[in-house]
Every structure is written in structure tokens, then in C-alpha cells.
Write a structure and sequence with these properties.
Layout: E1 6-11, E2 14-19, H1 30-45, E3 51-55, E4 60-62, H2 67-70, H3 75-80, H4 87-91, E5 97-101, E6 104-106, H5 108-115, E7 118-122, E8 126-128, H6 142-150, H7 152-161, E9 165-166, H8 167-173, E10 178-180, H9 185-197, H10 201-213, H11 219-233, H12 237-247
Parallel strand pairs: 2-3, 3-5, 4-6, 5-7, 6-8, 7-10
Antiparallel strand pairs: 1-2, 8-9
Helix pairs in contact: 6-7, 10-11
Bound molecules: hexanoyl-coenzyme A.
């Protein structure tokens, strides 16, 4: 596949996707979305690929949805084309993916980072939902995912004032999994992704589905869903291999069966 606004590399079992519109601080326009949909679908469909890292540049993960693309649109355009609906194809990715964020992750940029299974942040990362300053609001899930991640007080303050938070505050608030020095961000993300890629792939999908269910289901059906997935993994060869490898004190060799 050939892309113009993103760069896609495969490093063994890890796909590295870089947003690449430096002239617009990686602002997310329809072309970026279309290319991300294709890249994520290709990743999900390729059994040799087991984790994905999405990153931007040192200066910006992404400075938002493309304001210049949206500026002239009216309600009938936005509602008529269900603008941003395509992001649901990205969040439908079944296999694990990580957002590695350095610099600005604003508006849609923050929202895309929050679509990831988790965020690794450089110490230079700045997260914000400044849409209110433009007369709008988050439109790619930000109000919902940010509130789930950091709670009402901080989410409300960020959405109502547009205040950016730095990496440390984001980690304290539970928005990011870990903060690393900016120079080490991509290497650290690739290392983390490689560790995930070495795990039994069906177990990875099941773990992801179960944690995501925590944000959709009440506790009892959530626990039931978890337990059924857990039972289901006993139908895999990788469960036999994983437990045998532990008992035999050797590394497991997982096939995704
Ligand atoms: C289109 C953008 C952009 C964006 C930056 N650029 N962000 N273009 N959409 N979201 C462009 C600028 O116009 C400029 O282009 C170039 O990128 C460099 O940006 P500068 O502003 O010159 O850089 P700097 O002075 O370093 O400031 C960085 C910044 C600022 C603080 C991140 O760019 C900024 O505030 N950007 C907008 C952030 C924002 O409001 N994001 C939310 C977007 S709305 P030129 O051609 O002039 O060089 C959104 C909505 C989601 O995401 C859902 C609801 C609709």
C-alpha cells in the first residue's frame, strides 16, 4: 500500500505508523483518516503482525482535526456525511496498538491517542481539548474517553478551558501508562510492542476485549464476559504451550492457534 500522509514500516511482528504531515503539525484531515483506516486494517488482517505503534513527530503527535478542512462546513455537511464516523473503523482494530506521544496531542490528536489501547508519553507530551476555543467541542470521542480516563473534574476543566496538561500531570491523572525521555520514546514504544508481539496473539485479543468491556458493561456481566473469554482460551494450543513451557522452565513458542 502506498501512503502520502503516513509512513508505515514493519519491524518483525511490529507495525510502526508515523503521522507525516509536518507542515500542519500532523493535523488529521480526511486523507490521513483514510490512510490510517487502510493501514490499521492491513495490520489487523496480517497474522505475522502482532502489535502496532502509532506515533507522530518530536513536535506533534497531532495538533488536532484539520481546522482548515472543517472551517467552511455547515451542519448539513457534518451531519450529512457523519463527519468523523470513519474513526470507528480505527477503533474496531482487534489486535493491540499503542500511541507513542511526543509534543502536542490536541483536540483530535488527543482523541486519537485515547483510542489506543494505551498511551506512552514522552516527557515533552502536551495533551489538551482546546476545541471550545474554536466554538466547538471534542467530536472523536474525547469527552467520553477523557472523562473515563481522568475523571469528571479534570476532563471538565480541560474541555471548558482548553488547558493543556503535560506528561507528568497526564500520568498522575491516569491518561498515560508511562512517561519516558523524549529521545527514547519510539524505541521504548517499539520495545513494549515487541514484548506484546511475543505474547500468545489470541490471549492478547481476549485481554483487550475484556479490559474494553470494563468501559461498557456493569460489573457482574463484565466479570461474566471475562470469565467466558478466560474459559475460551483453554480451547487454544497456546494455552497448552504456555502452561507446559512454565512447568518445563522454558520460553513458550506461540502460534496463534
Ligand atoms: C490545521 C493546523 C492545525 C490544525 C496546526 N496547524 N494545527 N492546521 N488544523 N489543527 C498548522 C498551522 O496552521 C500552521 O500552518 C502549521 O500547522 C504550524 O502551526 P503553528 O500554529 O504555526 O505552530 P506553533 O506556533 O508552534 O503552535 C502550535 C500549536 C498551534 C499550539 C499546536 O498550531 C495550535 O494551537 N493549533 C491548533 C490546535 C487546536 O485547536 N486543535 C484542535 C483542533 S479542532 P501554516 O500554513 O500557517 O504554517 C479538533 C476538533 C475535533 O481537533 C472534533 C471537533 C470538531
Amino acid at each position: 500500500a502506498d501512503y502520502e500522509t503516513i509512513l508505515v514500516e514493519r519491524r518483525d511482528a511490529v507495525t510502526l505508523v508515523r503521522l507525516n504531515r509536518p507542515q500542519a503539525l500532523n493535523a488529521l484531515n480526511s486523507q490521513v483518516l483514510g490512510e490510517l483506516i487502510r493501514a490499521f486494517a492491513a495490520y489487523d488482517a496480517d497474522p505475522a503482525q502482532r502489535c502496532l505503534v502509532l506515533t507522530g513527530s518530536e513536535k506533534a503527535f497531532a495538533a488536532g482535526a484539520d481546522i482548515k478542512e472543517m472551517e467552511a462546513k455547515v451542519f448539513a455537511d457534518m451531519y450529512g456525511e457523519n463527519y468523523f464516523k470513519g474513526w470507528e473503523q480505527v477503533t474496531a482494530t482487534r489486535k493491540p496498538w499503542i500511541a507513542a506521544v511526543a509534543g502536542y496531542a490536541l483536540g483530535g490528536g488527543c482523541e486519537v491517542a485515547m483510542m489506543a489501547d494505551f498511551i506512552l508519553a514522552a516527557d515533552t507530551a502536551r495533551f489538551g481539548q482546546p476545541e471550545i476555543k474554536l466554538g466547538v467541542m471534542p467530536g472523536m470521542g474525547g469527552s467520553q474517553r477523557l472523562a473515563a480516563a481522568v475523571g469528571k473534574a479534570k476532563a471538565m476543566e480541560m474541555c471548558l478551558t482548553g488547558r493543556m496538561i503535560g506528561a507528568e500531570e497526564a500520568e498522575r491523572a491516569g491518561l498515560v501508562a508511562r512517561v519516558v525521555p523524549a529521545a527514547a520514546l519510539v524505541d521504548e514504544a517499539l520495545k513494549t510492542a515487541a514484548a506484546i508481539a511475543a505474547m500468545p496473539p489470541l490471549a492478547a485479543i481476549a485481554n483487550k476485549e475484556a479490559v474494553n468491556a470494563a468501559f461498557e458493561l456493569p460489573l457482574a456481566p463484565g466479570i461474566n464476559f471475562e470469565r467466558r473469554l478466560f474459559h475460551g482460551l483453554f480451547g487454544t494450543e497456546d494455552q497448552k504451550e504456555g502452561m507446559a513451557a512454565f512447568v518445563e522452565k522454558r520460553a513458550g513458542n506461540f502460534t496463534g492457534r
